[in-house]
Write a structure and sequence with these properties.
It contains 16 helices and 42 strands. It is α+β, with helices and mostly antiparallel strands. It has a six-stranded parallel sheet. It has a six-stranded antiparallel sheet with strand order 22-23-24-31-27-28, with helices on one face. The chain has a six-stranded antiparallel sheet with strand order 34-35-36-42-38-39. Helix 12 crosses helix 13, helix 12 packs across helix 15 and helix 12 runs antiparallel to helix 16.
Length: 867
């Protein structure tokens, strides 16, 4: 494998000499105030090259002090104190200690051999056949440890790691007795620990933008024509789609069978048919034409690989592979696989994989399921190694971003996104576990897990005729997928397993469609969070305790998490009850939180016990947040719109960063990107949003952008200004105007196309007398829901009471009040209509109680009204 041409891979691997303290057989390196490297070598030799885990030590040298005498050595930073007994030799409890400084860390002292008591978990290579965290034999998922622990420290033992040379190839472990430890002492500053690990182990790379769209995947022997028909249906249903995943049946599968008693083994002892590199021409008569069609639809194509059985003689590229390796083909012997063989992997890429990429394969699904360790390098995980080789090889090819789709291989694999968590069991238990599993993986920087949305396979004990996917379960899983790193549906090869969105009728299909649309609207927020993950080590999905480490509730509610900086998500993972709602308690941290639509405001510092309908997902937004959205109607993320919606939630102050780059190249690593800082402010008389000028540039950057600003939970403005110019009011959306959206109680300001190289100031002036009471939007929507329920159960031909009908369409009544009349009286008319609604709303129970319908239906009405 060839090295990159710009600079050797080992650049930056060694620490700066000023950070290193060497005394005979030990060496200490001060990497950050919270991170120390501890080495002991019987032979007095230490390694400075890259390892599987650590690839960069050339960090700025922090301030530290060395104090020593004939018997002891002490190293102090402003956060740690290390003390070593010079006569001690190998590190052990009796000769080495590290004490943490800080008001909350005074009692934290570590010695070699100490066992953590409160590690918060890392991740595991697969969820295959797991129902939640329980396997089919009853055993529990053997989670690896994470970097984060309530103990306040963690040690990464890098002693047994293999090395990486300047060609990114594996090198043997150093000889001799040795220790190579990295001590992280962080107290409860968990984000600092993640940043320190990212500094030495490398950042989470940014995936291409299309990764954050919708992926269609199913284990099915699709034909070219079937996939074209499927794609046409997506277009017809106006469902956006970005990635098309083809499982094993894209290639020929001689001898493949999963039926008990019919399995075959190949000459390597593996299941026949799993490994393959030749398109099945009965399904894909012209693979190049098929992939040209897919690209014409703006779809990216990934193909499944199980490379363990090498290259068989029936493969189209067998002869070319044999020629590259000088392999004797006289007996038509299969070419065996060895992932650490440079010659084998070079030949595989040059003669087999690159030609397929040139024909249209965009990236590979590396589904390694065979023997765990390299046969040539015992102890080297095949999963880890192949992830490394495939990703780095893709990074060498031009300037496109590396991307593979694979299983977790261990520490350091965060550098090779994205993960495939495997074939989880279809159940509510699996759904309930996945939020926790995804968030925990952030503790090892593995921020891009992709789960089989909807689950993969049924419990084996369920008879086939009884196997069916519950529509409600799938809809809830799709809602989780919206707020996951990757939204990808997948399932086993079972005819009853359909996950096409149009397969589900109302209300489940409606919820599924809404989930996909919301995912695309959130794409700019998600993409900015991906940039933050690259820069800080904070993954998109992150545990609550990163932000609130001193609150016990942050640890005892593992099914909820932060999605980026501003969204708190608690996906509903239980079915609805007889009343059509699911109870789902959520811990709200201190501060004020809004529902995602701005309809509800909640004071935090408590557990919020609410019930949610199928259409509702508990998503809460920090006060003052600015959430960027794309408009509805997108088909893919290949070409993002120039229009951006900025949803501004009430709060004294808030900020966000609008991030953009070309979405495909490695230019983001060279600073080729654009950033726009956005700041919001709110006081008693105004809502303000400052959109700074764009900083930075990249090829293809557009000079202008259309902004739509939405001040949520707002009052009726007297006037709206943009850059000092008063905008006119318009009853309909129109560039260069503002309107008051009574369906959302928000001020909607359409700036139209404006220069991104200039700053823009948006101000809505609102008198306190024109601000509606808190919770108005929630009451309006509950009134509408309750009256809709009443109409469905009303058993009389007589009309509903007038006040009930009017209360149910409050947003329309408010709109008429706003739109009809002169400019000067708009605010007063609005508030008068609000007061009329509040009076009707308060009287609704009594109004319905006076009707002749059954008492049970009256109680049902009140229940819906009070949800």
């Amino acid at each position: 494998m060839e090295a990159k041409k710009d600079k050797p891979s080992s650049f930056g691997a060694a620490a700066r000499p000023a950070a290193v303290v060497t005394r005979g057989h030990v060496r200490f390196t001060v990497l950050t105030p919270r991170l120390l490297r501890l080495e002991w070598s019987e032979e007095g030799r230490f390694r400075d090259g890259r390892t599987q885990v650590v690839v960069h030590r050339d960090l700025d040298v922090p301030a530290f002090r060395v104090t020593e005498d004939d018997t002891s050595l002490q190293i102090d930073t402003d956060r740690l104190s290390l003390r070593y007994d010079k006569a001690g030799g190998r590190f052990q409890a009796g000769n080495l200690s590290i004490r943490l400084h800080g008001k909350d860390d005074a009692d934290i002292v570590w010695h070699p051999g100490d066992v953590q008591t409160a590690n918060l978990g890392g991740t595991y290579r697969t969820l295959d056949r797991y129902d939640g965290d329980t396997w089919q034999d009853g055993s529990t998922l053997p989670l690896e440890q994470g970097l984060i622990a309530r103990d306040g420290w963690h040690v990464v033992d890098d002693t047994e790691s293999f090395g990486l040379d300047d060609d990114d190839w594996v090198t043997a472990r150093p000889s001799g007795e040795r220790q190579d430890l990295y001590f992280f002492g962080y107290g409860h500053d968990y984000t600092a620990a993640l940043a320190d690990f990212a500094a030495i182990a490398g950042p989470q790379p940014m995936p291409p933008r299309f990764v954050f769209g919708y992926w269609w995947s199913r284990y099915w022997n699709y034909s070219d024509q079937e996939l074209r028909t499927l794609g046409a249906r997506f277009v017809k249903e106006r469902i956006p789609l970005d990635v098309l995943v083809l499982d094993m049946d894209w290639h020929t599968t001689p001898g493949l069978s999963l039926r008990p008693g019919h399995e075959e083994k190949d000459v390597f002892g593996e299941q026949s048919g799993w490994t393959g590199y030749t398109f099945n021409r009965s399904l894909f008569p012209d693979p190049v034409a098929f992939m040209q069609w897919a690209h014409g639809q703006k779809l990216r194509v990934t193909l499944n690989l199980h490379p363990a059985s090498g290259v068989m003689p029936h493969e189209e590229k067998y002869q070319a592979m044999a020629d590259a390796l000088s392999w004797d083909t006289s007996t038509q012997a299969p070419i065996p696989f060895e992932g650490t063989s440079r010659s084998y992997m070079r030949a595989l890429f040059d003669t087999v994989l690159h030609p397929l990429e040139h024909e249209g394969v965009d990236f590979w699904w590396l589904d390694w399921q065979q023997w765990p360790e390299s046969k040539a390098h015992p102890g080297l995980s095949n999963t880890w190694w192949l992830n490394h080789v495939f990703f780095t090889q893709m990074q060498r090819e031009g300037d496109r971003r590396g991307l593979i789709y694979h299983r977790w291989g261990g520490l350091g694999n965060h550098r090779y996104p994205i993960g495939f968590s495997g074939d989880s069991v279809i159940s509510w238990t699996s759904l309930a576990y996945q939020p926790h599993f995804t968030a925990m993986a952030s503790n090892v920087l593995y921020g891009y897990w992709s789960h089989d949305i909807g689950g993969h396979t049924f419990h084996k004990h369920i008879p086939r005729p009884e196997r069916h996917l519950e529509p409600e379960l799938y809809a809830r899983w799709m809602q989780l997928g919206v707020f996951s790193p990757v939204l990808r549906t997948h399932s086993a090869k079972e005819a009853s397993l359909h996950k096409e969105p149009w397969h589900f009728g109302p209300p489940y299909g409606d919820a599924i469609f809404a989930a996909i649309r919301l995912r695309y609207q959130l794409a700019p927020y998600i993409y900015a969070a991906a940039r933050q993950a690259y820069e800080t080590g904070l993954s998109i999905v992150r545990p609550m305790y990163y932000h609130w480490p001193e609150h016990d509730e942050a640890y005892t509610h593992p099914s909820q998490y932060m999605f980026g900086n501003d969204l708190l998500v608690a996906p509903v993972t239980v079915p609805v009850g007889a009343d059509g709602t699911a109870p789902f308690p959520v811990w709200l941290p201190p501060g004020r939180w809004y529902s995602r639509d701005g309809a509800d405001v909640f004071e935090g510092g408590r557990v919020l016990a609410q019930c949610y309908t199928l259409e509702e997902t508990p998503v809460f937004v920090r006060q003052g947040s600015v959430v960027p959205l794309y408009p509805e109607g997108m088909r893919d993320l290949a070409n993002v719109p120039d229009e951006l919606i900025l949803q501004v939630f009430p709060g004294a102050e808030g900020h966000a960063e609008l991030y953009d780059d070309d979405g495909e190249s490695q230019g983001y690593r060279r600073g080729e990107c654009s950033r726009i800082r956005v700041q919001s402010r709110k006081d008693a008389t105004s809502h303000r949003l400052h959109i700074a000028r764009s900083e930075g540039d990249f090829p293809g950057k557009h000079p202008v952008r259309s902004y739509i600003v939405q001040f949520l939970d707002a009052g009726m403005p007297d006037s709206v200004e943009v850059d000092g110019r008063v905008l006119p009011y318009s009853a309909q959306p129109k560039q260069g105007t503002w309107l008051f959206d009574t369906a959302w109680l928000c001020i909607r300001i359409d700036l139209g196309p404006v220069s991104m190289d200039e700053a823009h100031e948006v101000i809505a002036h609102v008198r306190p007398a024109h601000v509606p009471p808190s919770g108005l939007l929630r009451r309006m929507r509950r009134a509408a829901d309750a009256v809709l329920y009443l109409k469905q159960v009303w058993g009389d031909i007589s009309a509903l009471p007038d006040e009930v009908d009017l209360a149910s369409q409050a947003s329309r009544v408010l709109a008429y009040a706003v739109e009809q009349g002169d400019e000067a009286g708009r605010g007063d008319r609005f508030m008068a209509a609000v007061a009329a609604f509040e009076s009707r709303y308060a009287a609704l129970p009594a109004s319905v109680a006076a009707t002749p319908i059954d008492d049970a239906l009256k109680r049902g009405f009140v229940d819906v009204l009070g949800r």
